[in-house]
Write a structure and sequence with these properties.
Elements (H helix, E strand, L loop, with lengths): L30 H7 L3 E8 L3 H12 L5 E3 L13 E2 L9 E2 H14 L3 E3 L3 E5 L5 E5 L2 E10 L3 E3 L5 H5 L5 E2 L2 H4 L7 E5 L3 H10 L5 E5 L9 H8 L4 E4 L2 E7 L6 E6 L5 E5 L2 E4 L3 E3 L29 E3 L11 H22 L4 H10 L3
Helix pairs in contact: 2-3, 2-8, 6-7
The structure holds NADPH dihydro-nicotinamide-adenine-dinucleotide phosphate (NDP).
Length: 361
């Protein structure tokens, strides 16, 4: 991560992520006119979310001739936009920067007619057909919806943490652990995620120091036992991160004792924040099934309990949380949605035949 990124947060990379409906030619959707008239924008499929899951759905839905609209939120691209080097996405043996990977997903989705609208959905009505969604002051109507809004890592909320994100501060050991070979790292948190991250990091790091704010872990006993018996892992109990120290990369942590407020500094090369994720599901509350943490719960495969509404990516996955797994789910959701639309007669037999004949196989 810090080692492989040069010049600027993402190596000086300039990515145009600001495309709107009005920017794109070959647009089958009348979004600009809708802006003028206030009429609803209609689509056969609306995809909510523009991370790996949403954009993969858009690629598949686009190739199926469904002219998808992607409502990608104000910061499209998902969590990969906060990552520097991605080395575990298949097809990029040299690695690729997270934002560049997402720019490629997006370009590929646009190539097949996907319309990117960087607005956040603030209201929905899934009781009507077509479904209704509101974003950026416009109403969208869709025969099918794919929810791919992802989950966001919860951060400590420190200015220094934000400044050094991608320069030693990470929320994903699987993504960035490799860059800390023979280095000293810290993992903040005491839940299952933190324990798993710490155990994973022992493959690379010389020492893994867990920073736990109470005198006990929250995670499962088996992971606790594994971590506590690993000679590379030590625990700073009842300690909180007061500041991440370092100018251009992480050099140390200033820790504050939870009971006495006494402070001390520990030298580390990287810090992995693992205090939980928050699924981005507020707008779907009351419509779709959720677990107690707010993750969506699919009914079968990618289908939700509402026929025509499908679910993909980290919004229902707190286990794997990888770009490749999210992309895989996006593909499944688009295929499920396409078949469902076909069953409903929304995609006509002629259209199905036309799409099939345009495929290379
Ligand atoms: P959890 O909410 O379970 O744990 C969060 C941890 O972070 C707790 O130790 C919490 O401390 C700590 N924490 C929270 N906020 C702060 C803060 N501001 N500063 C310092 N520490 C903080 O989240 P996880 O992501 O670990 O797990 C989420 C769910 O996913 C759980 O149900 C978990 O069991 C599951 N999971 C299961 C896995 C598995 O089975 N292999 C792997 C990963 C996750 P405190 O305890 O004091 O609140």
């Amino acid at each position: 991560m810090t080692d492989t990124t040069t010049g600027g947060a993402f190596g000086g990379l300039t990515i145009d992520f600001g495309g709107t409906a009005a920017d794109t030619e070959a647009a089958p959707v009348e979004a600009p006119e809708a802006v003028a008239t206030g009429d609803p924008v209609t689509a056969r499929i609306v995809i909510v979310g523009a991370g790996p899951a949403g954009l993969t759905s858009a690629i598949y839905a686009g190739r199926a001739g469904l002219d998808p609209i992607v409502l990608g939120g104000h910061e499209p691209g998902g969590q990969l936009m906060l990552t520097s080097e991605v080395e575990n996405y298949p097809g990029f043996p040299e690695g690729i920067l997270g934002p560049e990977l997402m720019a490629r997903f997006r370009a590929q989705a646009e190539r097949f007619g996907g319309r990117m609208i960087d607005e956040a959905v603030d209201r929905i009505d899934l009781s009507t057909r077509p479904f209704r969604l509101w974003a950026g002051g416009l109403e969208y109507r869709a025969d099918a919806v794919i929810v791919a809004t992802g989950a966001s890592a919860i951060w400590l909320g420190l200015e220094s943490e934000e400044r050094l994100r991608g320069r030693g501060v990470s929320a994903c050991a699987t993504c960035d652990g490799f860059f800390f070979r023979d280095r000293d790292v810290a993992v903040v948190g005491g839940g299952d995620t933190a324990l798993e991250e710490a155990l994973y990091l022992t493959r690379f790091a010389r020492n893994v120091r867990m920073i736990v704010r109470r005198d006990a872990f929250r995670g499962s006993r088996i992971l606790q036992e594994r971590a506590l018996s690993d000679p590379r892992i030590s625990v700073e109990w009842e300690a909180q991160v007061a500041e991440v120290l370092g100018e251009t990369k992480v050099e140390a942590l200033r820790l504050r004792d939870s009971r006495t407020a006494e402070e001390r500094t520990v030298a580390v090369d990287g810090v992995f924040v693992a205090i939980g994720h928050r699924p981005n599901t507020d707008v779907f509350r009351g419509w779709l099934d959720m677990d107690e943490k707010g993750y969506l719960v699919p009914d079968t495969t990618t289908a939700s309990r509402i026929p025509g509404v499908f679910i993909a990516g980290d919004v229902d996955d707190h286990r794997y949380r990888q770009a490749i797994t999210a992309a895989g789910e996006g593909c499944r959701a688009a295929i499920d949605a396409e078949r469902w639309l076909e069953e409903q007669g929304v995609l006509t037999a002629d259209e199905v035949a036309e799409v099939a004949s345009s495929m290379p196989w």
